[in-house]
Amino acid sequence: MALSHNFTSGPIAGPLFRFALPVMGALLLQSLYGAVDLFIVGHFASSADVSAVSTGSQILQTFTMLTASFSMGITILLGQYIGAGRGKEGGTIAGSGICLCLLLGLFFTFCLTVFAPTFAGWMNAPAEAFEKTVSYIRICGGGMVVIICYNLIGSLFRGIGDSKTPLMTVAIASVFNTFGDLLLVAFFHQGAAGAALATVAAQTLSVVISYVIIKKRGLPFPFSLSMVRLHGATALRIVKLGLPIALQDLLVGLSFLLIMSIVNRIGLTASASIGVSEKICGFIMLIPGSFMQSMSAFVAQNVGARRFDRAEKALFSGIAMGLAAGVCMFIISFFYGTHLTALFTSDEAVVLGAADYLKAYAIDCLLTSVLFSSIGFFNGLGMTRFVMVQGIVGAFGVRVPVSYLMSLEVPPRLFHIGLATPASSAVQILLCVIAFLYVKEKRKN
Question: Each residue of 423-442: pLDDT tens digit?
């Protein structure tokens, strides 16, 4: 199998956009993945099962996010090696990455299966749904190794410049998860446990099919099972690159939970409004999120090839394309927010509250077009510790305190609370500009 995309020569904008499209598709399918579970459980099971899936999936999503973020270290390092003409050493990266992820998966399996009741208690799972929530967490926790392998495959392929195969694996998992939900939940009436089994089974099948594809097509570097071990220096580099990204995503996610807690103090309508708008924001952020992942792979190859000029041009191309989409998202979210929020609820007060909060996110659509491409750029450079620092500063230095201060307004308005998010993005962009100028000056000297 030849390298899917060599980003170190030729045009920049076109290949970057074509690489980002399948990434965007994969992110969209992943967003719909959980929605399908809730939809089917909501129609064919009890409200306790709905609560269990809703609560349990939040916990599972946190652990999955940590895995996906950590595996970005594999994408970055593999891209840098390929760009440097050291692609034949990719086997040691893949072997170390697989070993690290398997160890992480076993640790997560232990935590989720043994401490499932503790996690359910932390999430304040309702008494009537508590046991179902514990069951959901334990079943998904038992399949964490498979879930981690599922994410690892995507990281490896993006590192070699292939974003289409990860899209295919996500599509396979999504289709079989839907059929599994219908079979286990609708036909056998297994409720939350059935949804969990369908999730693990679908991702297991996706991993098996992906393995068959890899065996048939091969990889652009020598690889065998004997390479699946911790290659000291390589494993350490993966950890140094991936751990800061995982820690940043964990803490940023925690900051949004804190904001939810702040808003919950205002009342039920405000709480429901935030919940609806956050679901919509998850889809809105797919475009900048896809450019962030694509930028990391693109820049990593050019850094390995010492083509810093192409890395910079890729950054500005990504920002320009992201802004074009961001303007469209701004118009839709700011002026037609009620149409979007009405898709999720018929409560007029919640519709208006969610649309008010969404106006603040509309502003952030413009800023994240710059921020997310910048984060991908610095990840590709290997500056993941800087990415972690700027993320933490934005979350706990701006987003949480501004949200709290705005919640003290009498009466509190969700639009003003929501402004904490674009305020955080603006500060993070400023930090990225300073870092960019520093890197540029350092390279020149």
Answer: 999 999 999 999 999 998 88
Higher-scoring residue by pLDDT: 406, 255: 406
Cβ of 413: how many Cβ atoms within 10 Å?
17
Asked if residue 245 lies in contact with residue 151, where contact means CB atoms within 8 angstroms, the answer is no
Burial classification of residue 40, based on how many CB atoms lie within 10 Å of its CB (0-12 exposed, 13-18 middle, 19 or more buried)? buried
Beta-carbon neighbour count of residue 331 at 10 Å? 12
Taken as a whole, the chain contains a residue count of: 445
Q: Do residues 302 and 83 lie in contact, with contact meaning Cβ atoms separated by under 8 Å?
A: yes
Peptide bond just before 411 cis, omega within 30 deg = yes
Place of tokens 């010492």: 306
Q: What is the mean pLDDT of residues 2-25?
A: 81
Identify which of 154, 125, 144 has the alpha carbon closest to the alpha carbon of residue 196. 144
pLDDT tens, position by position, 323-358: 999 999 999 999 988 888 887 667 788 889 889 989
**What is the DSSP code (8-state) at residue 189?**
-
Type of residue found at 385: R
Q: Which residues, at least 6 apart from 159, have a Cβ–Cβ distance to it below 8 Å? A: 74, 75, 76, 77, 78, 79, 82, 90, 93, 297, 300
d(CA 14, CA 18): 6
Look at residues 389, 395, 398 and name the one whose alpha carbon lies nearest to residue 435: 389
pTM score: 0.83
Sign of CA dihedral 291, 13, 159, 432: negative
pLDDT band at 284 (very low <50, low <70, confident <90, very high): confident
C-alpha dist (Å) from residue 42 to 48, 65, 124, 191, 388: 10, 25, 20, 9, 38
Give the closest residue to 233 by CA, choosing from 223, 225, 241, 245.
Answer: 241
With a CB cutoff of 8 Å and minimum separation 6, the contacts of 434 are none
> pLDDT tens digit string along 368-408?
999 999 999 999 999 999 999 999 999 999 999 999 999 89
Residue 342 structure tokens: 């009405």
Report the distance separating Cα 303 and Cα 301, nearest Å. 5
